[in-house]
Amino acid sequence: MSKTSSAPGTSVAPGTHTLPSYLQADKLGPWGNYLQQVDRVIPHLGSLGRWAETLKRPKRVLIVDVPINMDDGTIAHFEGYRVQHNVSRGPGKGGVRFHQDVTLSEVMALSAWMSIKNAAVNVPFGGAKGGIRVDPKTISMGELERITRRYTSEIGIIIGPTKDIPAPDVNTNEQVMAWMMDTYSMNTGSTSTGVVTGKPVDLGGSLGRRDATGRGVFTVGVEAARHIDLDISTSRVAVQGFGNVGGVAGRLFHETGARIVAVQDHGGTIYREAGLDVPALIRHVAETGSVSGFPNAEVIADELFWEVDCDILIPAALEEQITAANAGRIKARMIIEGANGPTTPEADDILQERNVLVLPDVIANAGGVTVSYFEWVQDFSSFFWDEAEINARLVRIMREAFAGVWQVAQDHKVTLRTATFIVACKRILHTRQLRGLYP
Ligand code: NAD
């Protein structure tokens, strides 16, 4: 990482992070990547740089024990987190992830990226994120419901429609949101639909929310393609992760005529030179849980996924997938980050040198939270919009936000990631400055 010089008025020089005692410097994980990304923006913050340290510390971290009765009569304990990174611009907002490898560092980074993302598309939220260390594939529906409900009760002291509003993320879905909404409502004594977003439509959810993140990925992809003279309708696309985000983005690209030549998920990697039958693949994943075993496709080694001949690469699974080890082999002209944090700062530098355009997570996957914002607004007013209106508003916000970021990247001669951080951090820190420090 290149060390940057101290911005005027910054209390701690970039690159010399004062770490909280609950993190270990040699095991910073995704939070370390986030800190490096913040360092790259500090030189561009001008006088607001004096507030920059606020971006390097989550406002609130809650770690909870989640004990439940298992079906076999034993009692199991799971570790749960809810982190509120910054709430200067509004209540915390961000998903809940159920995954066996969830760590505090990961949830902290994901909460910080939510602060940046929400400010980048200018929705009135701060950043938050939650997670439980559990592999939902190994437990029953009843156990999943009990974990969800106990976790919701435990974090109930800091969430709420005007405080912090969870949403789905990896391995959580509309049903999990329904249980969270019900649990919070039972504990507070009245039905509170606005406490979570990504709910079923019959429970105060919004039309268009399920597809929103993938639609946002597609929308910024189309906008960026114009700038680099890439014809989407004849392009070759590779997608990692074929869940909510990757599946929808893959479908929308496929509908333009683009060929989805490779897809990788936790079960393996499949390839088809002529393009995969995406609607059939979506049905296959819904029935079997993975892309593996899909007929009419070759199985290739997972590692070969990164060197597949394609124009557009969409990482839509987990963090730290594109690293210094594989960034040099990527053939795509454009990477659209559906996942949060899929590219390490070292890989970013390699891709920039190789002239690969990276549309960063903090703008590219903001479609989900944008429609979550619509859902929250609709819940407050109990007045629901039709899907055409939601999609039109989503596309308008994504296009305008992306155009603004593109312009900042040109003006400052920086990557789109740093440009998005410039736009977002200025908004967050300006709000911080206006509010001042309490007391
Ligand atoms: P999901 O659970 O619906 O899908 C996750 C996908 O990743 C699955 O296809 C899974 O098989 C795959 N995967 C898991 N481990 C893998 C591995 N080791 N290698 C390859 N593939 C693997 O989750 P999602 O909601 O689609 O989220 C995917 C990413 O998008 C996450 O980074 C998430 O934070 C981000 N994101 C999601 C939303 C949203 O609205 N759901 C919004 C913004 C960002």
Query: Widest sheet: strand order?
Result: 9-8-7-6-10-11-12
Structural class, from helix and strand content?
alpha/beta
What is the helix fraction of residues, given as a range?
40-55%
- Model regions low in confidence, pLDDT < 50 over at least 5 residues: 1-11
What does the average pLDDT come to? 95
Bulk shape: globular
Largest sheet: 7 strands, mixed
Ligands: nicotinamide-adenine-dinucleotide
User: Could you tell me the number of beta strands?
Assistant: 12
Tell me the number of helical segments per DSSP (H or I, 4 or more residues long): 12
String of helices and strands = HEEEHEHEHHEHEEHEEEHEHHHH
Distance between the termini: 37 Å
Strand content: 15-25%
Using only C-alpha atoms, the radius of gyration works out to 21 Å
Note down, in words, how this protein is organized:
The chain has 439 residues and is α/β, with parallel strands linked by helices. The chain is built from twelve helices and twelve strands. It has helices spanning 29-41, 104-120, 141-155, 174-188, 209-227, 244-255, 278-288, 345-353, 361-364, 367-381, 387-412, 416-435, and strands spanning 60-69, 75-86, 92-98, 127-132, 164-168, 236-240, 259-265, 268-271, 298-300, 312-315, 334-336, 357-359. The protein has a seven-stranded mixed beta sheet with strand order 9-8-7-6-10-11-12, sandwiched between helices. The chain has a five-stranded mixed beta sheet with strand order 1-2-4-3-5. A hairpin with a 2-residue loop joins strand 7 (259-265) and strand 8. Residues 1-11 have low confidence and may be disordered. Bound molecules: nicotinamide-adenine-dinucleotide (NAD). The site of nicotinamide-adenine-dinucleotide has 23 residues, from helix 6 and strand 7.
